[in-house]
Design goal:
Largest sheet of chain B: none
Strand content of chain B: under 5%
Oligomer: heterodimer
Shape of chain B: globular
Structural class of chain B: mainly alpha
Distance between the termini of chain B: 31 Å
Strand content of chain A: 15-25%
Number of domains of chain B: 1
Largest interface: A-B, 72 and 51 residues
Chain lengths: 268, 286
């Protein structure tokens, strides 16, 4: 089952119009005082797509995530999640969003189950339904036996997987993951990335995956590159490579973010 | 990790939250605050030790120095320990409110606060729920203190223990809301010491918690005026009168008014479009 089948699933379950993008940003800008963090960013992600948001550290990825998740208000431009304006209909938009933040956000003093139950209640899910979902999801990642252990006792990779379970608990249609694999070993990275991709294929969930690690990009992905707060590329991996006049996505990313010119400058 | 979404059913649509969902959310926040409190035994013990030290040592020492004449709500001379007890209840609520503020700053720094703020429920509801949870925890502390004080011989009329509950709730809401508002203004955890020096101590000492206002007036008319401007004075008096089944209306109005002001301020401060909280985070994001 490919991404298109997933697209249909999403359409069937929650969208009155299949043409409504999962996420749409229109002319979004944001500044911290006089420092411009994002400058006129516009892009959209179709339902059921896996989109990779590429950018170096400090490019503006986290600011973008904070705007999409309504932690920051959109002062300039508009953000729509499945047609819901994040500022005007934030509740509707946030119900469709599952978010995995860059920083670890589990309460380490509470057990895994207590953390997940708390999240379920923040989405109005009653304890009986929440327990069923928690049990099923934890079983699906082979971590049922860790359910009643304190989050503090988990490894970094396990905490991340529990955070992903938490983000899925309220059955979102769009999953945002901000540098979800940072600090993890290669095996954990591959496992998490593989599972998220499987989720897109099997359930039709849309994903915005922010990273600065090029090897996490797949040829079928939508690739969005931002550099110093500006959108410098948006398209399929093939299109981005072609438009940058490069042979690989690695080379294209280097050119788009100025890494190559810096190296050349160094040689000169 | 295998198929992560497992057997989870796919929703067929998103309807608006009903009353039940709001109650589920409130219950979840209450349970979480309660669990955090239970896991922090040191917090519970220190919250009791502080007022008990005041009661056992300070009040015992000052009993002979500070005479308390017959002033409402008392109908006879009372021991200094009896006079100071409502003030110590207020002290617990004050420290607990500020502790909640500290906890919110900590949660913000650690990222836990984000999980609350990205909930689809209205932000005002989330903040008030968190406030209610903090007040519930602080009221438990007050009753634990009153229980120990009872064995020390400091006893209110039996009905007073029940009648003071609404007053404790109102006073707790006011002080908790103040803590919440302050948490939006504190950029880093390290700055919390300033709260101790500039909020907790002045509020506590410039009030009727430790000495009757008529004595303050005799000693310093200026300090007396400051005490009258201090909302904590009214919180203490509200609790003091409630112990004897009476309502001090001025205190009631002032406490309700300040509660409203502080809650409104905190809701505005945590509003992403207008608030102070996000502006405080400017440096750390990219």
């Amino acid at each position: 089952m490919g991404p298109n089948a997933g697209l249909k699933t999403v359409h069937d379950r929650s969208l009155p119009d299949a043409n409504v993008p999962a996420l749409e940003l229109t002319s979004v800008s944001y500044s911290y005082g006089r420092r411009q963090a994002l400058d006129n960013i516009s892009f959209s992600i179709a339902p059921g797509r896996f989109a990779v948001l590429l950018g170096l550290n400090g490019a503006g990825k986290t600011t973008l995530f904070s705007l999409i998740s309504h932690l920051f208000a959109t002062r300039n431009g508009h953000i729509h999640v499945f047609g819901n304006d994040i500022d005007r209909k934030s509740g509707e938009a946030l119900r469709r969003l599952g978010i995995v933040f860059q920083a670890r956000t589990l309460d380490l003093d509470l057990s895994v189950h207590q953390n997940l139950s708390y999240h379920a209640s923040l989405h109005g899910i009653g304890s009986r339904e929440a327990n069923t979902r928690i049990h099923d999801l934890m079983q699906s990642i082979d971590m049922s036996d860790r359910l009643h252990e304190k989050a503090r006792s988990l490894s970094g990779g396990q905490i991340r997987r529990v955070e992903i379970v938490r983000a899925l608990l309220h059955q979102p249609s769009l999953l945002l993951l901000d540098e979800a694999t940072v600090g993890l070993d290669i095996k954990s990275r591959a496992t998490i990335l593989g599972d998220i991709r499987k989720l897109v294929e099997q359930k039709g969930i849309s994903v915005l995956w922010a990273t600065h690690l090029i090897d996490e990009v797949n040829h079928a992905d939508q690739v969005i590159v931002i550099n110093q707060g500006k959108l410098v590329a948006n398209g399929t991996t093939h299109d981005v490579v072609k438009d940058a006049g490069a042979d690989t996505i690695n080379e294209a990313f280097s050119r788009l973010t100025g890494i190559i010119s810096l190296n050349v400058g160094g040689h000169l | 990790m295998t198929e992560i979404s497992g057997n989870i059913s796919i929703p067929t649509g998103y309807s608006r939250f009903g009353l039940m969902q709001y109650l589920v959310c409130l219950k979840g926040i209450l349970i979480r605050e309660g669990l955090r409190y239970l896991h922090q035994r040191e917090r519970f013990i220190s919250s009791l030790v502080r007022p008990l030290l005041w009661l056992f040592i300070f009040a015992a020492g000052f009993r002979q120095v500070l005479g308390v004449s017959i002033i409402p709500p008392y109908q006879t001379y009372v021991l200094y320990e009896v006079y100071i007890t409502p003030g110590l209840c207020g002290m617990i609520l004050l420290f607990s409110g500020m502790q909640s503020s500290l906890s919110m700053v900590y949660d913000r720094e650690m990222g836990n606060m984000r999980t609350l703020l990205v909930s689809p429920f209205p932000r005002w509801f989330l903040l008030i729920s968190k406030l209610l949870a903090g007040v519930a925890v602080s009221i438990v502390q007050v009753y634990a203190f009153l229980f120990i004080a009872w064995f020390w011989g400091v006893k209110a009329p039996p009905a007073g223990y029940l009648l003071t509950l609404p007053a404790l709730f109102l006073a707790g809401m006011m002080l908790g809301a103040l803590g919440m508002l302050l948490s939006s203004m504190i950029k880093q955890l390290e700055n919390f010491a300033g709260i101790m020096n500039f909020v907790i101590f002045p509020m506590y000492f410039a009030s009727s918690a430790l000495y009757p206002l008529w004595r303050v007036q005799e000693a310093s008319p200026l300090l007396y005026k400051i005490c009258l401007l201090n909302p904590f004075t009214y919180a203490v008096e509200l609790v003091r009168f409630a112990f004897y089944g009476k309502i001090e209306w001025m205190s009631f109005i002032v406490v309700c008014g300040f509660t409203l002001v502080f809650i409104t301020g905190a809701i505005i401060a945590y509003d992403p479009s207008r608030g102070l909280v996000i502006k405080k985070q400017e440096g750390g994001n990219n």
